[in-house]
Amino acid sequence: MPPPDERGQPPRRRRMLALPAVCPCEAIAPPPLLASLLSLAADAASLQRDALPALRGAAREAVRIAGLLHAFLHAVRGAASGGDARPLPDEAVLGLSELHVALQKLRLLLADCARKGARLWVLMNAEMAASKLRVVMGSVATAVDTLPEGVVAASAEARELAGLVSAHAWRAAARLRSDPEDDRAARGVRSVLARFAGGVMPDAEDARHVLDSVGAATWSGCAEEGAFLEAELLERLETGGEDDNDLVLIGGLMAFLVYCRVVLFDRIDDADKAEAAAVARPPARCAAWVNPEALQCPITLELMTDPVTVATGQTYDRASIKKWIKSGCRTCPVTGERLRSAELVPNVAARGIIEQLLLSRGVPLQEPRSKHRCAVDKTAAPFGAAAAGGVRLAVAFLIARLSRGTPKQQKKASYEARKLSKRNVFYRACLVEAGAVPWLLHLLSSGDASVQDNAVAGLLNLSKHPAGRRALVESGGLGLIVDAVNVAARVEARQNAAAVLFYLSSNPEYCEEISRIPEAIPTLVHLARDSAYRGRKNALVSLYGLLQCADAHGRAVSAGAVAALAGLLLGSPAATAAEGDDLALDAVALLARIAEQPAGARAVAASSELVTRLVDFLGESASRSAKEHGASLLASLGQHGGDRVLALLGKLPGLMPALYALIADGTPQAVKKARWLVNEIHRHYEKRQAPAGGDHRVIRV
Question: Where in the numbering of this chain does the U-box domain appear (predicted)?
């Protein structure tokens, strides 16, 4: 198992049409090797021929040869285990191992050719795929020809099938080519991309012909193809592939699919039928021995998407175990053993099995949510003139529908804007430049909850772009966003509107304007108190941003922010313990900011129960940032609350041990605050105990 790379990131996933293979161990015995070969051949031969959108002729011939090879291997095993059984000779291992490597590559190549969502990519790389298929067929033929006589002559049937496999594989190695229909469709795509580069709209029939040829003639088909290409683009950018020659082609194909999705289809079709058909397909043989429950994360009991192994050898989903460790737990959830190290090693084997299982059911393995965040920042520039031209044409069409379309057209356009702006900086810039922000703000007043939801989500995505934030403010959208937090029809829309305020608060000028809106802070406090986890989280971070304005502290206190935050610390219900801990940490950070002002500190110190809980939190938390916020908060209480608060703090038995621990092993800011608070508490008690006019000596730490 390889160690994680220097950045601690998961290993790269296998790229399409890359064919890694592992040679079997030299010490392996012929029977288990033969059994593995039978499984590989059965996988390759089980591919449904109608699932091949490109390279149909060549791939179908390869599937037929895999079927012959499976029959040959079955005959060999039958002869080796029958009544007159002749054990396979040990020298057969070398030839069978070569065949094993070739079959691994054949299975991967055929799976890529039939992969849902990758059909357009395979079409544009059909010649390369055909070339790789010829090489693999040559390897199969060579491996069969070099098998010992004891294998080939295991029976008359085996000898005949070996001859057929060899003849067909050699012929395929010499003759396999991409289909003429594929070549015509690929030329059609290049023609459309050339028109994009010139800023010219392509002929709709040409685009439809390409979509028909790859089986993506619906909106959901285009979306599926686009999702694959987006993941491929971000994966390459994430791994430092900015100079990858394929990026221009990927960017152009993404623009083609965006244009088709936006312009050619009047409605967003239901993909349920397509998904049902994918699930109904016979799964590959490799899935037959897999127990799906064994691939569930022991923490969440959900299928792992990014499996990693901890020091005890147990495997968990990366996001789940990271939350577990971040919450202060230093034991293995399954075994209870103490973790000697917090290192998480990617479990490549488990990920491969999960990917194989899902792909056999037509479902791609979803990437972890946190992945590609850095790569998204690298999409600020388009990858080629075709990508830029195609997206601009699609965006112009969208703006026309948003501004002058029927309600049905506006609904689809709002969803397209939401989807388009999700993970591409250039797409966001195009939407802002074309004037999408005012029209999305206008749709906030729609009576259709779905339209309203799409508009808020689109504005959230655009608020991540500096030009989007500027357009939103200049269009008079601040009050509308605050209203959406308060009265949007759906909970998700209210939560997203709160997140928009967070991004806007990153600008001090916008922050001042928001804080002056009378309803802004009370609305966020209400959301933090009464919403579910995500709404509370968004409200807390937005409040934290707004409190950088000095005037906002008093408004937050008046709106009941301290009581709402105290509720999060004193046991307000959360969906999971991890979510509760996360909200508690945010609550302490926010209270620390509120307590920077005297009025805020007095409001916090007014509740002795809350102060006691804060001291307990300081001692319990394993997060260094949480301890720093806790120390800053308690120091502010001592500074602004005077002797009454210092006396209360001095009576709490858990405070001094927590402060001394922080002085010994805390951040520089935490050490400074903890040392000041210890000295002030000592000074307070020395002052009380010393006689009037006596010598007040305080031991400083």
Answer: 290-364
